[in-house]
From TrEMBL:
Pathway: Pyrimidine metabolism; UMP biosynthesis via de novo pathway; (S)-dihydroorotate from bicarbonate: step 2/3. Heterododecamer (2C3:3R2) of six catalytic PyrB chains organized as two trimers (C3), and six regulatory PyrI chains organized as three dimers (R2). Belongs to the aspartate/ornithine carbamoyltransferase superfamily. ATCase family. GO terms for biological process: 'de novo' pyrimidine nucleobase biosynthetic process; 'de novo' UMP biosynthetic process; amino acid metabolic process. GO terms for cellular component: cytosol. It comes from Thioclava dalianensis. This is Aspartate carbamoyltransferase. InterPro entries: Asp/Orn_carbamoyltranf_P-bd, Asp/Orn_carbamoylTrfase, Asp/Orn_carbamoylTrfase_sf, Asp_carbamoyltransf, Asp_carbamoyltransf_Asp/Orn-bd. HAMAP family: Asp_carb_tr (MF_00001). Catalyzes the condensation of carbamoyl phosphate and aspartate to form carbamoyl aspartate and inorganic phosphate, the committed step in the de novo pyrimidine nucleotide biosynthesis pathway. Reversibly catalyzes the transfer of the carbamoyl group from carbamoyl phosphate (CP) to the N(epsilon) atom of ornithine (ORN) to produce L-citrulline. It catalyses: carbamoyl phosphate + L-aspartate = N-carbamoyl-L-aspartate + phosphate + H(+). The gene is pyrB. Carbamoyl phosphate binds at R58, T59, R108, H136, Q139, G264, P265.
């Protein structure tokens, strides 16, 4: 199986073959997760530490469950109460953890690039669970698996990513992944929430939602990331919903069989109408959560295989290529 990376820091480092390797293995884990007995021993004897410097509900629990189902010993570091609060630097925390010999570190951090930096200081495999506005690779992979299962393919689709693009690592990772797989990506946002220079990623940019949604196969909605805003980016939530909230009238511009996605957490009545989110004929939001566990199992399984191979080579004196 292809997939040689040591860490999963971003989609930008992955080839289309790497992406398909993760998704193909994840399909097997989707099956396993639907059984009564959901355990394997792919990570038996290994230690996984989850370090979430930013709050998370679904991503952290998804990684925890994924590690446990693979047989790893999983520890959740509570970063709210850790020594980081007492002024310890990220690097000191990393070195302390490194001395405990973990095999996998899952890290979420508020600063773009922090996870890359940490990966350079430790000997284990590092997975980026979201760094600032930069990347959230497992989210893009789980979105890709959801799309591939719903549409039967992951290429030549028109995907509209809509909302607070400027502050979204989900949008960025999806844009890179969908571009690598030769899809047509449209970004829809008010000018204040559209990052400058984004057209160089080869996507189309819209500020009119109806025009952007026209004939889309996939509609991906984003939350307003207020915690990353330092001013008035939108006039009011009411006005925002009126212009950019996904409701039945706007969704009618997309293809009749278009699917609706959202990474969560959702703000009903702000970026999405609750009835659309709950419409099982259109919304795949719950499937995204299910695919999340399977994709994270696949990623950790593949990284653990590479880690074992690397350690095996080190023991026999070969160099890692
Ligand atoms: C996203 C994140 O944290 O970047 N959520 C998630 O991972 N489920 C998107 C968001 O917070 O809006």
């Amino acid at each position: 199986m292809a997939f040689r990376p040591r860490h999963l820091l971003g989609i930008e480092h992955l080839s289309p073959e790497d992406i398909h390797s993760v998704l193909d293995l994840a399909e097997q884990y989707v099956e396993l997760n639907r059984r009564t007995v959901k355990k394997t021993d792919a990570l038996a004897g290994m230690t996984q530490i989850n370090m979430f410097f930013e709050n998370s509900t679904r991503t952290q629990s998804s990684f925890e469950l994924a590690g446990k189902r693979l047989g790893a010993d999983v520890m959740n570091m509570s970063m709210q109460t850790s020594s980081v609060k007492k002024g310890e630097t990220l690097i000191d925390t990393a070195l302390t953890l490194n001395a405990m010999h973990p095999d996998l570190l899952v890290v979420r951090h508020g600063s773009s690039g922090a996870v890359d930096l940490l990966a350079q200081k430790v000997e284990c495999a590092v997975i980026n669970a979201g760094d600032g506005k930069h990347e959230h690779p497992t989210q893009a992979l789980l979105d890709a698996l959801t799309i591939r299962r719903a549409k039967g393919r992951l290429h030549r689709l028109t995907v509209a990513i809509c909302g607070d693009v400027a502050h979204s690592r989900v949008a960025r990772s999806n844009l890179i992944l969908l571009g690598k797989m030769e899809n047509r990506v449209r970004l829809i946002a008010p000018p204040t929430l559209m990052p400058s220079g984004v057209a160089e990623f080869g996507c189309e940019v819209y500020d009119d939602m109806r025009a952007g949604l026209k004939d889309a196969d996939v509609v991906m909605m984003l939350r307003l990331q207020r915690e990353r805003m330092d001013g008035g980016f939108i006039p009011s939530e009411r006005e925002y919903f009126h212009r950019y909230g996904l409701d039945a009238e706007k969704l009618a511009f997309a293809k009749d069989d278009a699917i609706v996605m959202h990474p969560g957490p959702m703000n009903r009545g702000v970026e999405i109408d609750g009835t659309i989110a709950d419409d099982i004929n259109r919304s795949v939001i719950q499937e995204q959560v299910e695919m999340g566990v399977a994709v994270r199992m696949a990623v950790m399984d593949l990284l653990a295989r590479n880690l074992r191979a690397e350690r095996g080579r080190a023991l026999t004196g070969e160099t890692y290529v």
